[in-house]
Every structure is written in structure tokens, then in C-alpha cells.
């Protein structure tokens, strides 16, 4: 697991720390923030705590043999969000999926395109292509991805599992 700190103009992506537990649980249980997340918000504090504990274990040793990096997004020394870069059921060889969420107070400030550009540069060093799987009704995410650049997109899956796969333009000169 790489999981080195990544700094942007306004944010720090860093490993979670034990002191982040209460804020992360709050973030993962927030119904508005998690509205478009695949599994939705955590329904109980114990489930959110279990996720936090799994994240902390990932830093000690990977739980899987697939690429998986996970960061706390920090702004002004406070937890502002969550970011994952991983191989998933939607990725093919050479692709990494981005999954993220920000506390609502940080929406609309251009933070996610800023972070995505830095993650894109990080992925390019590994010769990896970024993808995202999104609900097109999630207009905030669509706008963030458009600001970074969408190379192409297509529907994947079927029925209720159908999602839009978006390939993010590579940024070789970041």
C-alpha cells in the first residue's frame, strides 16, 4: 500500500489517525453526503466504527492483494472528507477507481477538482488511468469530473446495478 500524503493548494490527503474516529463516523453516517454512495450512509454507529477500524487495519497491512489507498481529506487541520483510490469490480488492467465524499460545508468550493488533479498525477506515476462510477443525477460529481476532464464514458452493469463508468483524462503534466 502506497498511501503517502498528498498535498494540494488547500488540502492534505493523509492517513486516518485514531483522533479522526468521531468525525469519520459522522461523515459516513451523513445521509446527504452519502446519498449517491453505492451502499448509502452507514445506518448505525457500530457499522461506521467497523469501517473506521478496517481502514486503520489497512494501514498496518493490506487486507487484499488489490491496489487500495485511502485518505482522510484535511483542511485547516480538520477532517473535511474521505478519498479512496482502488481496484474494484469496475476497473480493468491499468485502471484505478476514485471514490470520495466531502462534508457538505465544503461543497461548491472547487476542492474536488483540485484533489482529483493531484490524484491523477499520483496515478500517472504508476501508469494508471483514473475512472469513476457515478449516478448521472449526482450533478455535483459530474461537474467536478468535467472540470478535470472526461475522456469518455459508458454504461456498465445491468438493472439496479447499472452505473455510468467515466474515464478521467490523463494529466501527464501536472
In short:
By secondary structure, the protein is an alpha+beta fold. The chain contains 4 helices and 8 strands. It has a single domain (6-168), classed as Gcn5-related N-acetyltransferase (GNAT) (Aminopeptidase, 3-Layer(aba) Sandwich), CATH 3.40.630.30.
Query: Helix-strand pattern, N to C?
Result: EEHHEEEHEHEE
CATH topology (level 3) name: Aminopeptidase
Question: What shape does the CA trace take?
Answer: globular
Helical proportion?
A: 25-40%
Total strands: 8
- Kindly state the mean pLDDT as a whole number? 92
In CATH, the architecture is 3-Layer(aba) Sandwich
> What is the domain tally?
1
CATH superfamily: Gcn5-related N-acetyltransferase (GNAT)
What is the CATH C level class, in words?
A: Alpha Beta
Topology:
Elements: E1 6-7, E2 12-14, H1 21-29, H2 45-60, E3 68-75, E4 78-86, E5 95-102, H3 111-125, E6 129-134, H4 139-148, E7 150-156, E8 163-168
Parallel strand pairs: 5-6
Antiparallel strand pairs: 1-2, 2-3, 3-4, 4-5, 6-8, 7-8
